[in-house]
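Hi team,

As requested, here is the filled-out complex form for the zinc ion run. I kept the field names the same as last time so the parser does not choke. Let me know if anything looks off before we queue the next batch.

— J.
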Amino acid sequence: MLGRVVEFAERAALRAGPERALGLLHYFPDSAFDAIRHARFRRTVRLAAARSPFYREEFRRRGIDPHCVEQPSDLGDFYTTGDDLRANGPEAFFVGRADTAFETTGTTSPVPKRVFFSRREISDMGRLSALWLHVLGLRPGDRIVSAFDCSFWVSPYVLRSGLDWLRCFHVEAGKIDPNEFYDRAAVYHPTVIFGEPSWIVRLSEIAQVRGRWPLKFLLAGGENISEASRALVEQAWGAPLYLNYGQTESFGALGAECRMKNGYHRNDLYFFFEVANADPDGYGELIYTTLARDVMPLIRYRSTDVTRLIDEPCGCGISMGRLGKIRGRCDEMVVCGMGNVGPWVFEDILRGVGGIGGDWRVAVLAEGPRDVVELHVEIDDPSRAADVDRQISANLRERFQDFQKNRDMKLYDLRTRVHLPGTLRGAGRKLRRVVDERQMITV
Ligand SMILES: [Zn+2]
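And here is what came back:
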């Protein structure tokens, strides 16, 4: 009951303008947010059990009575995985009518995960995004140019929905070549730029040569970024670069940085966060349950991202807890300037390349601000190295237009390193195919 009353107050607060909403939410004690979170969790579990074929069947099979579930740990070792989404199809998760869908690209499998949403969900998430952008200093007089990739990707949609509440001037450039962006965006006099981190790094290098614009801030999402690259961006523009962290499955931000840039403040109103298999420092796989979804709720969804929960107060004064900087992924997928790449990408790139052995590995490195994707292969005849390199480039161009496009835009470098047969595997160790060797910011 308390949860319902507080929830009503929270919704009323969010419907006010950002300034008023922040003022009202400030009066909510932590216990009120906790009550909302638990009420929404219970409702989500019951709704999913009643209407989603996947959850109904899983709960039945495991003997889980949804009416006895009060918190995530009551579900024992039950989790939802990306493979569950792919194997069962999105319809198995539906509890209501969908208005739109987005896809995750380049996961550990070539099959995209499809996630469906309602306009109500989009509008709610837009309000929260607007609130956060207001916290970061965005005001109606600001002029935004966004370079998010619009193809099946959720981020541009979330941004637009947030801007509907903030009523800023907004131009959508799409993810075009940063040189072209620099030429075409200048006439709109942007004060805030949105894009993916590797794209923003490239744009910043151009700005260093051609001149900076007076920006208020830049906001990046979709990939991780090293502290060195962030420093380059901030130096180039004389403005801060903030990151947000989300997944298509979560629809928008699970968390976002504040001015302190010290981890992502959690969206505890719309997600119930847990960390599984935590190490002694608290780092483990981030698990979240969606709390405000009426089309495709996800219960204890395994993000495959490794981070930790931080509940100590943040220097910015905002009481919401944080997620630490993402340390890496539990699977072998790496998010970098090339795109979201996993073993299957390189298997496909190497398919048909003459003169190489079956073993290979990929290291993703950071050289200066740019990611380098280093493809290690074994060949019998070292004199054929240049030929192998040429075939790999041709396959990339032919089979992965998106990754080629990012290469053309100089968002990353791809290079081939050749080794003698039998040397990559070492002493019979299991070969880890794709390894992220970049030094990331850790909080
Ligand atoms: Zn903070």
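Two things worth flagging: Residues 258, 260, 265, 314, 316, 318 surround zinc ion (CB under 6 Å). The first helix runs from residue 2 to 15.

Thanks,
J.
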